[in-house]
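Self-study notes.
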Amino acid sequence: MHHRTMLLIAAMLALVDVAVPVNTSARQRAASPRRYEDLVTLFTAWRAFQRPKVVNGVPDYSPAAMATQHRELATYRRRLAAIDTTGWPTSAQVDYHIVRAEMNGLDFDHRVLRPWANNPAFYMTVFDAQSDQPAREGPHAGGAVELWSYTFPLSPGDAAQVSTGLRAIPGLLRQARSNLTGNGRDLWTLAAGDVRDQSTALADLETKLGSGAPTALLATVRHAKAATDSFSTWLASKISSKTGPSGIGVANYDWYLRNVHLLPFTWQDEVRLMERELARARSSLALTEQRNRDLPPFVPIASADEHSRRFATAIDDYMAFLRDRDILTVKPWMKPALQARVGRFSTGPREFFAEVDYRDPEVMRTHGYHWFDLARMASEPHASVIRRGPLLYNIFDSRTEGHATGWEEMMLNAGMFDARPRARELIYILLAQRAARALGDLRMHSNELTLEQAAEFASANTPRGWLRLDGRTVRGEQHLYLQQPAYGTSYVIGKIEVERLMSDRANALGDKFSIRDFMDAFDAVGLIPVTLVRWEMLGRVDDTIRRVVR
């Protein structure tokens, strides 16, 4: 939606004679905000409120500060509830429910998740690699230092920004020792890896800066690393005393799905769907292997030269397929977005996704739709300020992770891998892994499985032994899903919902259906919960939407 369209909507909403329920008094009708601008104003205030107060340069997550924030949240929720959206266009109503979901997310953080009290990894704020999501996955304290976003040597302005972020670390980690009172053993145990990652990132930063960097900046880096290492020692001393479960429970999971991620499912629904997708993936793989039994086996990439050549060819072929088959409108920033994420050849044991990538690099370029999404956010910002930046609490994940996962099989079915039949095997292995780890997510949060048991389950149910128990991927993923409920299931749940939306549009339009028109409209909606994408594209409320926007 273009800026001019949003201005027209705002003007229409300012003039519309809004219908009000008959039991609303004239005084209440007069007092109720009813303009789209009222929502935008509240959104701006809400985002400022949601961030923690900063005291002496350090975000304040103390019990007193969090109690105050939770108490004051009620005011923002009342202000949102008072806005009368009757008569608003669909896109404006979608924005309203985005804001509602975010407010529900903060409420859930205070009532249930409480990452500042339960999750030591919450306090890790230095990251040396970019997330492929609109915002970094999982809950994190404010003031993150995204080292990957800087060019070295640092400019004076960038050096000042980095220094400001790093100076907060010693105080934040001292505060963490008082704030962290949770008893969830898995959250405490797995946080140790995140702390080590921060320490390594800070050591690498000092090396990058070199001895010629300003003395004050180098001292700040060293102080931040010393504080991180001290926190690591403290954390290790506490782990043995942590004996409780880390999951949020089924009832809380149900509430979170419906009210924060805006998904029309329960925990039990998702278990059934994940079991079905796991069975479908593994049975489809078995049949595909039977069909391909006489074909030569995959030969993984074996050198840096081969890596460069095959990944470059994969990107060229993928972009040509999208353009020549009229799959979507190809933009000039799409190919560079993929080229920037090729990575480098490495030897030694491979993690799960490298096992796929090194056999057919084109397969994971489909999941690389994430980089299209991020490039679109930068190159074609959404007209709505509410959708222009990343949504809070990872509530974009059913759209971003779900679509990227679904796109793999969609491109398979569209004929992208017809010349390489073994690629079909990789698609089903990927789906099986996503379904298996999603079941780990669900059963960790129901407290049926520990994180280690969830990792063992995911490894055992991923074909060919590629999700190695001695690798980092399997536990790292389950740790994220334990910190961020519904993230592990979003890949497959979002995929299912995107497939259903495409099915409904194709059924309604018949011979007039165009995958290019569908994808262009889908992308234009923005990175919002997939159920809200459905509402905007259909232009009406159906039973699926009604269950989450009531």
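Second protein, same conventions, sequence then structure:
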Amino acid sequence: MVSSVASTLLSTVKEHLSQVWLEFALASIAAIFYVFFSKHAAAKQRKTTLNSGENSQSPGTENAAPFAVKERYVAQHSDKELTASQLILKAMAQGRFEEGIAMMQKAPFAIRRVPTDLACNLLIAATKFPRAGMVEQLKVLTGKISSPALDLAIGETMKAQDFESCRRLHMISGLLSIQKSQQAFVALAKAHASDPSALRVLVEEASTPLPISFAQTVLESCTHGDVKDTSLTAAIYQKVSPADAALLRDELLEGPAVGSEGSSALDDLCHVNYHNPQSCKEISMRANDIRSCGKNGDLQGAIKIFDRLGSLANSTLILNSLLDACVECKDVEKAIKYFNQPGLSGLADVITYNTLMKGYLAIGQEGEAKQLLAQLSRKGLSATRTSFHGLLNARVNAKDFPAAWKLVAEMQSTGVSPNAVTCSILLKGKISTHSDVIRVLSLVDAMDQPMDDVLFLSVVEACIRTGRLDLLSKQAEKFMNQDGASSLSASTYGSMIKAYGQARDLKRVWQFWDQMLFHSVIPTSITLGCMVEALVGNGCALEAWTLAGKMRDSSSTRDLVNTVIYSSILKGFAHLRDCEKVMALYDDMKSHGIQANTITYNTILNAFAQGGAMHRVPPLLEDMKTATPQVEPDIVTYSTIVKGFCNAGQLDRALSILNDMKTSGKYAPDEVMYNSLLGGCAKEHRPDDALQLLDDMRKHNVAPSNYTLSMLVKLMGRCRRINQAFTMLEDISKEFDLKINIQVYTCLIQGCFNAGQPAKALALLEKIVEEGVVPDSMTYTVLVRGCVQGGLLEKAVELVRLAYGRGPTSTKGTPPGLNAGCFDELVCALGGPTSDNAKEIVAELGDCPAAPSGKGSSKGSSKGSGKEGSAYGGMGKGSGKITGRW
């Protein structure tokens, strides 16, 4: 038993030693040959790299030259003879990083540490060629990449001035728990010089005390660069050693003049005794403790620390920390108490006032905050942007833009120039007037620092909201020409593409798309969706399909092409009623394994309904049933099929679909479906089926709308059952408390004429006027033509005068007039313009214009009923013929 265990242990140890030895041998040989070849055979290395990368689909192959020798060495052994760790190293050495990472995911403990040069190449490849899902894949490397590898990668990116890749390395280092050296911290601080949030993260990551070279780099950005972050400056001074703090202070005071925020941060330091390192260290530590208590909601703890400080509490830094803790804990009264203490009031600086103003604003006491702002100048202190920004934000949130602009003018009068934060606050209020947008953009143009991504996105939204795409084009060009333009996010590109797509400016749409790709910004599925929608919305569905195909064929963007993208393109082909293209695209989806969803199938069904291809419906429904997972039809599916059969003149099949849906019990028919069915009844002159559907609506508690009633009235008029139409309208209006609109009444008037009852039609006009319903141009057109058809020419002339506001009673608002052609029909019926009967009306109204095109053809209240949404249907199109119009 013991010997068996010993034997097993011995064999295991041997196996592990063999793996370690082979890994060590590979790494050693690779290092030796790399040094030799890098000095004596650079050209040969490049050739080897290209040859080894010809068959590789993964990025980073161009960086694989140092591993060419190792690859040949390992190639002498078959893959079956190699261990898991050796196989992984072989894949990575050949530049097949994704394959190597995939193998590591299956055997996460196979590699204890990735060799430095190999890890460097892998990190650079990850930043140069980011792919969807790469972040999750890289997590398997956590704890397996050394600090020197990160240093090498950061050095390469900084040497190439590729700050974006350097910033990505920072993100990856945090993800993979790679320890950063002092050299790495300094380089990353330079890469993040314009990003205060990232700099703050770096300061928090660094160990205490901060290395002075790192502190100097960050302080350079905080005081002389674009960041101007006083709280970050204070954090740095709290984390450096006392001796370094004094040195840094002297350097800054001797250096170039700094802004107001930078000088106020230095003022904090003037109250610290740098000649007493112990005192300096104690104050910095206690100030940090007080702020920490405030952030944790422990105001009592902060006050206890303050009380224990004794004479050391007489420091601006301590006072500001305590006031900040009071404000964090929403105890402004206590902050005022300490602010007014005789022993502390003399320590107040501009940060003290700004902190107290922030507290007043947090509890809605804007007046007190304004008083503090006024006190600053009387105390001999200069207001900073922060002093104004809190009040500005309050006025913008209150939508009081005149007061906000007054504050901006006050800022400028005191010598404080607006910056990106100022402009972002103004734009945050969603200003909606062109003049306000232009005023903000003038501030943006006057800034001495470039726009950042956040401000530019706000500018984009404001220009889109106000429809000023001309201003957006100018600002976009300015932004792209400044430093850092490559960091513009994919979502911002998507917003601009969407806006210009809606403006039907495809030239600009393509410019932004090409610009995004030129700057190596990887689009998201939303960005691609905006681009596809822009093309589809402008009738370029085929171009959208071509673009989606290119994105799908690229390994880096394949995952972006999803069901939503295909559904959008399908919608474009459906709108064009191109059923052949719809089916070709659907087949393309299936061939590439993209699962269609309910929206996809409904879009295809709508194309069949509009294109008259209802014979294609059964096979598509079968596809829905056999899909994995099965796609269930919804109410839109049923409504679309019903509408298609009604349009095709197959009412019985539509009614069968209705019965099937009710039998399944999953969905209840809605108004849209009933309206489609009633339209089918009208098309096939089946009034009894229509009345049965009306009863069915009552059973399912579906209230009819005016659009529903207009179709019923038209149907009854066609079938000369006008009396039944009157009764039906009266009953429904009472039952559902529905106010009949002018479109329904106009249909009823037309039905009266069709039934040979002109007197009833004219009496109906008097009734609707008494009810306060205003006739429109279609109403008068139907009345005049009906009277002309019935030989009631005098009444027709009277109605024409009423239509143009020349009747015995004045009309409310602008007279509606008549539709085009109607007046000419009356003149013709009177004997022509030269006849005695027509001369008077021609002289009086001959110059009156016809009603604008489309006037009087309201869409009623139908929901999503497409072209059937017009309550007037095909009424009054100018032929003068009334009979059979229904």
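Instructor comment on the second fold: Residues 2-40 form the longest helix (39 residues).
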